[in-house]
Hints:
Blueprint: H1 4-16, H2 20-33, H3 38-50, H4 54-67, H5 72-84, H6 88-101, H7 106-118, H8 122-135, H9 140-152, H10 156-163, H11 171-180, H12 192-202, H13 206-211, H14 218-224, E1 235-241, H15 247-252, E2 256-263, H16 266-273, E3 280-283, H17 286-289, E4 297-302, H18 313-322, E5 323-334, E6 340-342, E7 348-350, H19 352-361, E8 365-377, E9 380-390
Parallel strand pairs: 1-2, 1-4, 2-3, 4-5
Antiparallel strand pairs: 5-9, 6-7, 8-9
Helix pairs in contact: 1-2, 2-3, 3-4, 3-5, 4-5, 5-6, 5-7, 6-7, 7-8, 7-9, 8-9, 9-10, 9-11
Amino acid sequence: MTTAEDLLQRGIARHREGRLDEAVSLYRRALRLAPHHPDAENLLGVAARQKGDLPAALAHAARAVASVPDSPLFLANQGAALAEAGRLAEAITALSRAASLNPQDTISLRNLGQALTAAGQPEAALAPLDAATRLHPDAPEPWLALAHAAREANKPDLARAAALRVTGRLAEQAGFLLAALGAAPLPDRAPAAYVRDLFDAFAPRFDAELEGALGYRTPALLAALIEGLPQNPPLGRVLDLGCGTGLSGLALKPHASRLEGLDLSPRMLAEARTRNLYATLHEADLLDFLPKHPARYDLIAAADVLNYLGDLTPAFTAIATALKPGGTALFSLETGTDPVALGEGMRFRHNPDHATHLATQAGLTVERREDAVLRQEKGADVRGVLIRARK
């Protein structure tokens, strides 16, 4: 006779082989045989998180923890799901408990440190992240997390030392952090993987933080530049470049006959999809996507997107390629005095005169340029420039 334990073991084997749907089916069968089985609930939660179904992941994790409150494994998985959902205070509570019950769990220690850093407590994040690096000194993930926390905690020496320990697939991201600290050459752009990971993690709390404490204004300011265009809105095909969760789409939608969005982050796109603003959403890097769609768009808007590119020439060339003749580009830049510099916030700042010169060289004619406060950061204004250009 097949038991719930038999089904769970078969499901775990399928899970390890990457056969996720088969594993989920077996876990559910086990749960039907043994309702409220904590291992089945926990494994279904892990699978749901892997499939991007956070509500299901949270529900399963909560039931597993309710059944066995002192299981470090269940608490660790619940904490990871809570962190992904942007529920950082609850995540910190669960992960702290998991780490106290199993202080050898490197992943829980790392997740705890990352949650504390995201919650604005980088100083508190240093201890669990340091412990994670000591437990697993060859793993790049804890070192990179420690480097970011140390940078946020204003400990540049520790940040540099930790970043230099990062190897393998995360080395490019560590190099970018080192460049922001002035300890490596200035790169042409932020690594795509860094941008994707950053905004995947930020997606659940993006709107609340930007529209709340950060006073985010860029989309509305850019959309205001559409007024006064020779052609009457609504325009034809409009591309929201780096659309994120769709905040910029809200400002652009009234001006577009067809609004499309593009972003590197799948979790940002999932949030944008819920707004029902876009005819199409594209998951791609703008430098890959735009050259493949020549003369397609009447307007391309990039709100706080070019801040992740140091060398603007490829972006301006790509935008000009994708615009129809007479099409319009709208974009914002964070401003500085040097032609290009990498700020402490790990975003590039550009000299507006230099940037407009590059835009002109790429075939864009600058029509309007306005200085603006784009948002707040650590209580200070983030100053920038808004530009409207025509192909």
